[in-house]
Amino acid sequence: MGHDGDGAIGASSSKPNGSVTRLLPSLDRLQPWMIPIAASEIIPSPIQPRKISINDRLFEIRTPRPGMLKFDSKLMNGRKLAAEEARREQKAESGTFVRKTTLSSNAPVKEKEETNFFQGPSSLFIFAEDNIIRRNAKAIIEWGPFEYFILLTIIGNCVVLSMEQHLPKNDKKALSEWLERTEPYFMGIFCLECVLKIIAFGFVLHKGSYLRSGWNIMDFIVVVSGVVTMLPFGTAIQTANQPVDTVDLRTLRAVRVLRPLKLVSGIPSLQVVLKSILCAMAPLLQIGLLVLFAIIIFAIIGLEFYSGAFHSACYNERGEIENVSEKPMPCTNKTSPMGVYNCDVKGTTCLQKWIGPNYGITSFDNIGFAMITVFQCITMEGWTTVMYYTNDSLGSTYNWAYFIPLIVLGSFFMLNLVLGVLSGEFAKERERVENRREFLKLRRQQQIERELNGYVLLIFKLLNKIISFFRYLEWILTAEEVILKEDRTTEEEKAAIMEARRRAANKKLKQASKQQSTETEEDFEEDEDEMEEEYVDEGGAVEDEFGKDILSFIRMPFNPTLTTERKKRGCCHSLGKFIKQLRIQIRIMVKTQIFYWSVITLVFLNTCCVASEHYGQPQWFTDFLKYAEFVFLGIFVVEMLLKLFAMGSRTYFASKFNRFDCVVIVGSAAEVIWAEVYGGSFGISVMRALRLLRIFKLTSYWVSLRNLVRSLMNSMRSIISLLFLLFLFILIFALLGMQLFGGRFNFPTMHPYTHFDTFPVALITVFQILTGEDWNEVMYLAIESQGGIYSGGWPYSIYFIVLVLFGNCKLI
């Protein structure tokens, strides 16, 4: 058993009880597939060869002597032994001391390690890796219920923020004051989560620490800004009549609306979508710089041409602007340019003392307002009004040469480049996903091949065992025959053998008869086609056996030759067969073309009846629609019951279209019954609208329409994360608008429909801005509500520009 190739291993064969640790360095020269053999040779044992004969073939088996082999479990696993040796060498190089003990072949392997105190990076220079506080903090943040608790806390905080109602002059209702008192509790929970993560992961210095993640940075900013707004600043704001209060930093308080973004860090699918969008920001940056450069160029040109052109208006003798209820327009005292507007009302004069249109925001007086006006024109919202303002003040001869290139280059070309970049990035992402899918498919195929190889070996082993069993059985039977034929076998032994054979034969016979007598009825839905072919001939007519079963079922009680038990069994059997054949007949009927077109016609007529209802209709027409609704509803109920009886409840409700049809019919029936009993509909706008959904019954019969609806639903499932991210975006900007403009859209002459006083209206306002409809009008009102152009209101235009850019161009 000596190994000639290695002196260390060869020496081990001569000293089986020597030290093992001095032999381990020689294992680094072995291949992984050689290690188990080498490990078995480290502790040698005498082997005794033995020769046996099987089927006239001679085999030599080397088996160990009993009691001579006492292998250690660790040493027998060669790969583990090599891994432990590599770990020892690595720790020896890194300064970790390993105390080794001399082992014999009969002793288990023991290692006692003395490691340094710092096994990994410490947290905050205080909590080591094995610190009990750090371990408990890590266990808490990795605990599933804690994650759900944080998500529920975020959702609850969003609900609290949305329930606030902002009133003019910073007035508050009792509900708003109570909601504000809940803020410290939410901040306490968020601070606890932040502290636990910092203790568990570390703060910022080492890899994998808290602030090395972008989501954690966002959480940290939200938490710190919330804490700062709640800190008291002592005597700096304390007076005799006013106690110490907190600094109301509106900007920092507005940061708390970013808390819904913490949902993204808890939902992996949203992280994937948001990361894809953020990855597209890099190529979009170049497009954004190009658009910004174009806006600056056109703003400078407009500043040169139209500076101060929008401050002239028609004033009457009392010094008031004429038609102040309507939108004034610029004017001029010159008559030479074509298209200018002169004050044609008697007693009015064009004076240049007007602040300008839209509270002076729409102008080219400086580079800031010029850029805002150019950006408004690029979004194609209100650009014609700006052009007509320039025509009224300067004439329409050359203004088209400015606005048409602005729209063509800015809107048609540059903003569409954003869509091109986004489509390209999504195409790349789709290609990466497809490549990964192909890779996973190939890896799965390789895994299946490896598993099949293992299964083949297993099958061969099982076949070998089966063959061995049958050979053993054959040997037993042969031995029994030999025993029976021997003269020295007694009669009792022969009787015992024959009795055992008789019992085995009887057992097999009982099993065969039981299996033959037991009738297994297959499921009706799985063999519907075979059953239809069985009872329907080539001409489509049903055989007479169905009628014979009915007659036999009717005549059975009048047959005196049958006993009571036989009548009972025959009655149940005929009834079950009759019901089965009736289901077959109804199944055939609902599959016919006549039934198909009848249902489609009824759906079309029902839709026409519902659509023909109008205001001021006569009473006879109302009664006709009422009774027609009863008729259609009854027909559809009968159709549903027929299909339910023919197909069975399991097969019927397995189809999504059948479930939808059942909900529509049951809802319509409930609405009709409620209206008849109580004299009115309990949900007329909802329940009666269910009748309109009957048109979708066509999808269960129209194959192409059904495939189209399925494709639409599949696409909705694929973009559900994107839709949720869009809703999250709208939610955040609605809450931010409530913090910035809540209770501010109150003017002496009007109270606009679009405002941020309440959460529902704020959602609608943000959605309106995303669609691009009159977003500039909302921006004008917001700037004016914050003091106007002369009191620092213009920076609030950034809110609307960011909302339009990221919402309209990026998400939508």
Automatic annotation (TrEMBL):
Entry protein name: Ion transport domain-containing protein
Positions that bind Ca(2+): E381, E773
Chain segments annotated as transmembrane: 143-163, 185-205, 217-237, 284-306, 367-388, 400-422, 594-615, 627-646, 719-741, 794-811
Protein origin, superkingdom: Eukaryota
Xref: InterPro entries: Ion_trans_dom, VDCC_alpha-1_subunit, VDCCAlpha1, Volt_channel_dom_sf
Record keywords: Calcium, Calcium channel, Calcium transport, Glycoprotein, Ion channel, Ion transport, Membrane, Metal-binding, Repeat, Transmembrane, Transmembrane helix, Transport, Voltage-gated channel
GO annotation terms (biological process): calcium ion import across plasma membrane; calcium-mediated signaling; chemical synaptic transmission; detection of abiotic stimulus; detection of external stimulus; detection of stimulus involved in sensory perception; epithelial fluid transport; neuron remodeling
Record's subcellular location: Membrane
Biased composition (Acidic residues): 519-529
Biased amino acid composition, Polar residues: 11-20
Organism: Caenorhabditis brenneri
Assigned GO CC terms: basolateral plasma membrane; synapse; voltage-gated calcium channel complex
Chain coiled-coil ranges: none
One Gene Ontology MF term: metal ion binding
